[in-house]
Amino acid sequence: MKRSDFLKNSSLLVGASLFSNGLSAKDQSTNPMDSKSANQPFKLNYGPHQGMFSATAGKNFLDEIKYMHELGFRGIEDNGMPGRSADEQKKVGELLAKLGMTMGVFVVPKGGNGANSLAAGKQEFIDIFVKGCKESLEIAKRCNAKHVTVVPGDYVRNLPIGVQTGNVVEGLRRGAEIFEPHGITMVLEPLSDTPDLFLRFSDQTYEICKAVNSPSCKILYDVYHMQKNEGNLIQMMENCWSEIAYIQVGDNPGRREPTTGEINYKNLFKWLYEKGYKGVVGMEHGMSKSGKEGEEALVKAYREVDSF
């Protein structure tokens, strides 16, 4: 499941009302979304995205956020926030504030991609990136976001790696200059989607963040991608901890909810909790089942791995 799939999911803007799950009293006694567990916050701040609970809450994003809160979630993510109207961005921010929930990341428009790589060092690409950062600043103000995702783009095969790294650092410094006065942090995400990507490893990202030397340039550590690219998860997070500002998750293989793959998420979440991590843990993954059954399995999985 690639980032584009999440962007498609998060762009659903069709309104619908909140639905009841229709469970009997007997069913509710063992169901992970019954009244006993509802409104009990998790130990960590897991952040679902739009569509994860649409079978019950409907396709209206605001209704779904309310339902997420009822289930005990206190954060959300929305990669496609820039595609929403300014009015809806503001309404999301207001609702989150009212519910005491945290807005997680959204993706900076043109924040770096295969056709616009900061590694190339071309002014036209830097200009596009800077424009996206300025747009993101205004979006972040409306929805109360403090973190925005940046992917620097692809390798440029005709340049030495050191030159490419220097170009990325210089480009990111331009972005940091925009965000830093407003307390907003770019989080750089190393990915596993394709070997053409410039940024693929946590230590590489750590080095770049140190070179940019700004509180507004840190690491987004996506456990799913890093399990695929380098493994040794807890030790690598420990090595890079001073530069990690945001966490995303998904089990591997499959990129679905925890407990469906090989990663020991209960142990990993226990480690994050003991490190004192208070940020959003973005649920950037698919689901092993569809419909209400899938929603129940999703909540059950997070209750399990949060029971450390």
Please provide a written account of the structure.
- This protein has 308 residues and is α/β, with parallel strands linked by helices.
- Helices cover 43% and strands 10% of the residues.
- The chain contains twelve helices and nine strands.
- Strand 6, helix 8 and strand 7 form a beta-alpha-beta unit.
- Which strand order spans the largest sheet, edge to edge or round the barrel? 1-9-8-7-6-5-4
Can you give the mean pLDDT?
Answer: 90
Please count the helical segments: 12
Order of helices and strands: HHEHHEHEEHEHEHEHHEHEH
Low-confidence regions: 6-30
Oligomer: single chain
- Rough outline: globular
Task: Show the helix and strand layout.
Elements lengths: L2 H8 L14 H4 L16 E3 L6 H4 L3 H10 L4 E2 L9 H14 L2 E2 L2 E2 L15 H21 L3 E4 L10 H19 L5 E4 L13 H11 L4 E6 H7 L3 H8 L3 E5 L16 H11 L4 E3 L8 H15 L3
Helix pairs in contact: 4-5, 5-6, 6-7, 7-8
Task: Give the structure's gist in a few sentences.
This protein has 308 residues and is an alpha/beta fold.
